[in-house]
Design a protein that fits this description.
The complex is a heterodimer of chains A (about 180) and B (about 425).
Chain A: H1 3-19, E1 28-29, H2 32-38, E2 53-54, H3 56-66, H4 68-71, H5 106-116, H6 127-140, E3 150-151, H7 152-157, E4 166-168
Antiparallel strand pairs in A: 2-3
Helix pairs in contact in A: 3-6, 5-6
Chain B: E1 11-13, E2 17-18, H1 27-31, E3 74-77, E4 85-88, E5 106-108, E6 121-126, E7 132-135, H2 136-139, E8 145-152, H3 158-161, H4 171-175, E9 178-187, H5 188-195, E10 203-208, E11 215-219, H6 220-225, E12 228-233, E13 236-237, E14 247-249, E15 262-268, H7 275-278, E16 283-284, E17 290-292, E18 300-305, E19 316-325, E20 331-337, E21 345-346, E22 348-349, E23 359-367, E24 372-380, H8 389-396, E25 409-412, E26 418-421
The chains are: A mainly alpha (about 180), B mainly beta (about 425).
């Protein structure tokens, strides 16, 4: 095959693939700094946790101001979900699914609170306040000590009581590769 | 009665179920016009007022008849909020397969955002060669596909079958977290290909631009297979409550994953384990463990008429009408029983019967006026058969909350009133 006919063949293949479903290429290359501002999610292994820290003691005050009206004193529930308690109830007739009894990953708590709470003012809390709230809820659930500081390093290591009780129905979930180490 | 075909009126199953041929070809004529309970008499006046003066002028955007104003979504919010909750499609008031956009069910986690499409961007980043922003005008220039697809919240129907005692409410109140529309949009694979997928990527994280910034992890395989960036619903731009200006649409998967108001797609190696896929949308089993990533909605059907609130007027011939759908494929067959499941007749399926779409089924039933239990069961082309409530509970208990697809039984009382029963 001559170079010319090979070139014609390649051109045909290329044009053919365009017709088969490529777009017009109108995406605008994103500046890494702008991507960083949008990229707010925290992975289950703690990847993405920002600088900052807080303790349960700090978190109690944040909770009283922003959370108590809906979630009740000490996370006991009210207008909205209970956040504390329920450990040991999941295999009974009246399971209580809370942060302490059900949530498999502590980093998820930081991610969710920072993106969606407080309900009326999402994205209004500082990272320190979110760490403090996270520490307070983990403390109320008996998972960490009252004085233990939560930050990017310590929160990623918190092992939740219900961590090993999820069965992935989707085969490629690779659950075992997330937080594989036993707690310290 | 003239025109009645004796063959069509042959009994197909116990307690008065007639052959499905009644709804094919000459079926309607075979019934005789006045014999269907749902037909109403024409106005008796020979020259009603609306024939004595010109009607109202044209309008820029249509509205339904004021006589239909009672057909509404039923809404329910989490206490302390007015935008975190659900609205349910009034299935008992609808026919055919397409849900009017105004009656499509809703599930919002923090209300409906009012998004300026000119200010909205979709970011694709993470494990890609080039992170890219797309504006809505650009997305509209991409090749699109249109598909008629159902969307169902995975919590749908749990109140119909997972309460200790059967709850009687309208069909929509019990099963109305499912709707069906024609969705038009850009295949997600086209946009991901443009960004250049890193071989290390196996999942995507989709994030909405609502005040909950709701996120879900989705297998990359699904994203590349048939996922859509939907821009149109039933021919017009998406309704705000359905994700305007752009939503993700994952055919057959639980509704929560079709993230509305889509603003960000991040390609990742592993699922992100968001609150929505861990604390919620996981199915708690009797042993205390939970199923996670139960994505496809399983085969299901429900009789929408007769159903609670639509009482039968007296013995005679009635149309049984209902809907069947499966996240695994096409509906292959729907069977109907009028004797509590002792015998079954095959229902007529109204074409087109499409994959991961809503299928309308109908059967003719001669009600003798005695109490009866009617039910439907669907079978899809993967071979999956809609299970009984008892079989599901034996396997998964009463607390799994999501993906309940048990056979719905309605009891028709001697007075014609319809109630939910466990049978």
């Amino acid at each position: 095959m001559s170079m010319r006919s090979l070139g014609a063949l390649l051109l045909t293949v290329f044009v053919g693939s365009v017709a088969a479903g490529e777009g017009p290429g109108l995406g605008i290359e994103a500046d890494p700094r702008e991507v960083a501002a949008w990229d707010i999610d925290i992975a289950a292994d703690g990847t993405g946790l920002p600088p900052g820290s807080g303790t349960a003691t700090d978190g109690a005050a944040v909770y009283a101001r922003h959370c108590l009206a809906c979630h009740g004193a000490w996370g006991s529930g009210g207008l909205n979900d209970a956040l504390v308690g329920g450990q040991g109830t999941l295999d009974g007739p009246a399971p209580l699914r809370t942060v302490g009894s059900f949530w498999p990953f502590a980093a998820t708590l930081f991610d969710y609170v920072r993106r969606a709470m407080p309900y009326l003012e999402p994205r209004s809390l500082s990272n320190d306040e979110v760490y403090a709230l996270t520490a307070y809820l983990l403390f109320l659930n008996g998972i960490i000590a009252e004085k233990q500081t939560m930050d990017a390093r310590t929160l990623a290591k918190v092992r939740m009581p219900n961590r090993d009780n999820f069965i992935p129905a989707y085969p490629a979930a690779q659950l075992e590769r997330i937080q594989p180490e036993a707690p310290e | 009665m003239p025109g009645r075909s004796p063959e069509a009126l042959k009994l197909a199953a116990g307690n008065g179920l007639l052959h499905r041929r009644l709804f094919m070809k000459r079926g309607a004529a075979a019934l005789g016009a006045g014999s269907l309970g749902l037909l109403t008499a024409l106005p008796s006046r020979a020259a009603p007022s609306w024939m004595r003066a010109p009607g109202r002028p044209m309008t820029g955007y249509g509205a339904r008849s004021s006589h239909e104003d009672a057909v509404q979504r039923l809404t329910a919010s989490v206490p302390g909020t007015d935008g975190c909750g659900i609205s349910l499609t009034p299935l008992q008031s609808l026919e055919g397969t397409i849900t009017p956009s105004s009656l499509h069910f809703e599930r919002h986690h923090s209300g409906v955002p009012e998004i300026d499409p000119d200010a909205h961007r979709l970011l694709v980043h993470g494990l890609v060669k080039r992170p890219l922003f797309f504006d809505m005008a650009s997305l509209s220039r991409y090749p699109m596909v249109s598909r008629i697809l159902f969307l169902e919240c995975s919590g749908n129907s749990s109140q119909a079958g997972l309460e200790p005692e059967p709850v009687t409410d309208t069909c929509g109140a019990l099963h109305g977290l499912v709707s069906c529309s024609e969705w038009t949009g850009v295949p997600l694979s086209v946009v991901l290909d443009e960004a250049g997928v890193d071989p290390a990527a196996h999942w995507i994280l989709a994030e909405g631009a609502d005040a909950a910034a709701m996120t879900r992890s989705i297998p990359l395989a699904k994203a590349m297979d048939d996922a859509l960036l939907a821009l149109y619903q039933n021919g017009e731009r998406l309704r705000p409550e359905n994700g305007y200006p752009v939503r993700l649409f994952l055919p057959g998967y639980e509704g929560n994953m079709s993230v509305k108001w889509l603003r960000r797609i991040k390609l990742t190696a592993r699922p992100s384990m968001t609150r929505e896929e861990t604390a919620r949308y996981t199915d708690l089993l009797p042993d205390g463990r939970s199923l996670m990533f139960t994505f496809p909605m399983q085969v299901k059907s429900v009789i929408t008429s007769p159903s609670p609130g639509l009482a039968l007027a007296g013995p005679g011939l009635y149309q049984i009408s209902g809907m069947a759908w499966s996240g695994l494929g096409r509906i292959a067959r729907v069977e109907v029983s009028a004797d509590g499941g002792a015998t079954w007749a095959e229902a007529a399926l109204s074409e087109p019967v499409l994959s991961k779409s809503m299928t309308r089924f109908r059967a003719a039933w001669r009600w003798n006026g005695a109490p009866a239990v009617i039910m439907s069961r669907a079978i899809d082309d993967s071979g999956a058969v809609q299970p009984t409530r008892a079989a599901i509970i034996a396997e998964k208990g009463m607390n799994f909350l999501y993906h309940y697809n048990g056979i719905q039984a309605w009891r028709v009382g001697g007075d014609g009133q319809v109630t939910n029963v466990y049978a």
